[in-house]
Design a protein that fits this description.
The chain has 342 residues and is an alpha+beta fold. It folds into three domains: 104 residues, no CATH class; 89 residues; 104 residues, RNA Polymerase Alpha Subunit, Chain A, domain 2 (Beta Complex), CATH 2.170.120. The chain is built from seven helices and 23 strands. The strands form seven sheets. Strands 2, 5, 7, 9 and 10 form a five-stranded mixed sheet that branches. A four-stranded mixed sheet has the order 4-1-3-6. It has a three-stranded antiparallel sheet with strand order 8-14-11. It starts with a helix and ends in a 12-residue tail after the last strand.
Amino acid sequence: MLQNIKKLTLVVFITLLIWVWADRALDEELAGITASLSADPSASPNLWVSFDNDSSAHFRITLSGPVSRITEVKRKLKDRSLKFGFLLDPEKEKIGVPTDRYPLDLLGFLEKNVEIRKLGLKVKSCEPGTVNVTVLKLAGKSLPVECLDENRLPVAGVESVDPPRVEMPVPENWTGEQLKAAVRLTGKQIEQARLDAISVRPYIEIIPGSFKYSENRVQIKLSARQERLQDYGIPATIGFTLSENLFGRFRVELTDRGPSMIGIKATPEAKTAYENTSFKLLLFIEDGDTKATEAIPRELVYNFPPEFVQKDEIRATQQQPPKVRFKLIPLSPQSQLAPPGS
């Protein structure tokens, strides 16, 4: 009896070995998996990492392993319960600091990844094979806070910033104008700050599009500059802008020139400067407009003096710019002009 049990156990064990061997012998590949690499947030807070001047790197990998494991990964990718997002700790990878454009071997990095090993798979290939890593050492600095609008222009009428400075880690080699923190205010936030102080978090932009925010917030209060703006009516003179491809070959005919007057809110100085511009509204003509068979509708652009726009001292009364309809009329060969600079 005991001998029969031992024989049965041996048979079961050998059968399991055969199944495991068969599963591994039939390794399958799974290609084109989207993966990403970003800085490990648990790494040293005094280091800042970027990948080819971006906050993360994106690449594609090919995995290989037993059919059962590949099938499971496919299922998890499909239901989005699995994502291949990897983290880089420059100190663990022994990347010197500071360093610029360190070529990280992605395949070598991924081959050591514990999470992939837990899946019972291995990385067969990676495209691209390397990514350039930049690591900067950060140092704490006291930075003044500046207020910007959505176009990154200074907001006029800043009454108070409390506190006026924030402590933030910045690259050690930053000097001069770089040593500033900013708050970016939307139009709605600007209107709110004119009524009462608003709370926002300052940030620095180490590379374009990559922001590091302060842990502390500041209170922004703007002066009620709207009280200085008065209502005015201005004659709606229209100017045309067109490329050298169209200049001298077509004339613009307005079939509907829109309103004869436009309403603005402005300081007296801004209103005077606007009146002194040659054209109060601009119509931008596109090269493709020559293909139109009917009159073209288009919004006009207010030709406000930029220096007063930046100071929020001039704006249109209407939310929507006025519209016109126009046609491009070809000039006869005899009356055509040579384009500028020819």
